[in-house]
């Protein structure tokens, strides 16, 4: 297995995914704005690149086989950061991936990104950004997997998921640890090309992805 570039490796899901890949003795390039946020990770399989996603971060793709885009502007930022990170940085990442011949691009998107108009809330700018970034990836010609998790929780990983949206809105959720384990499964084992699916806590093993 070649190197995996994780963009947003210091975020909650990104860091969990980084640790899981390292535990599996996978080579990881962790792209972060502040490398101190990964000071508790130590592995001969880990290389850290410190770079702001609002600038040119193309060199991080050199020598990598696949990319996991797990970066996000965060709930406490304004629409400007949503535009710059969730849309523009994601779009640039897709372009860089094409430039460097990346074999697979795994995008962490969001439930609701398929149709932002269906949700009237303060999250709409975020969902629009995710929608447009997903569209750019879909049209890029890259081999892609787009994962759209439900509402994120801090519960421990059950390692059980479903790709079928629950009928009850309050059940449309998934733990961050389950998302990270799903990303590990996709990165290491999934052979499905150009797939898009929603992801929730459920009763199927993550290995079914």
Structural features:
Oxidoreductase; 11 strands; 209 residues; alpha/beta; Rossmann fold; two-stranded parallel ribbon; 24% strand; nine-stranded mixed beta sheet; NAD(P)-bd_dom_sf; NAD(P)-bd_dom
Provide a descriptive summary of the structure in words:
It is a single chain. The chain is α/β, with parallel strands linked by helices. It contains four helices and eleven strands. The protein has one domain: Rossmann fold, CATH 3.40.50. A nine-stranded mixed beta sheet has the order 3-2-1-4-5-6-10-8-11, sandwiched between helices. Helix 1 (12-23) links the parallel strand 1 and strand 2 (28-32). Helix 2 (79-99) packs parallel to helix 3. The longest helix is centred in the middle third of the chain and has 21 residues, at 79-99. Residues 8-189 form the NAD(P)-binding domain. It comes from Pseudoalteromonas porphyrae. This is Oxidoreductase.
**Secondary structure category:** alpha/beta
Q: pLDDT average, as an integer? A: 94
* CATH architecture classification name: 3-Layer(aba) Sandwich
Total number of beta strands: 11
Largest sheet: 9 strands, mixed
Compute the number of structural domains.
Answer: 1
Instruction: Kindly report how far apart the N and C termini lie.
Output: 19 Å
Domain NAD(P)-binding: 8-189
Protein name: Oxidoreductase
Pfam families: NAD_binding_10
Annotate the secondary structure layout:
Elements: E1 3-7, H1 12-23, E2 28-32, E3 46-50, E4 64-69, H2 79-99, E5 104-108, H3 124-138, E6 144-149, E7 151-153, E8 160-162, E9 173-175, H4 176-188, E10 195-201, E11 204-205
Parallel strand pairs: 1-2, 1-4, 2-3, 4-5, 5-6, 6-10, 7-9
Antiparallel strand pairs: 8-10, 8-11
Pfam family, one: NAD_binding_10
Protein name: Oxidoreductase
Organism: Pseudoalteromonas porphyrae
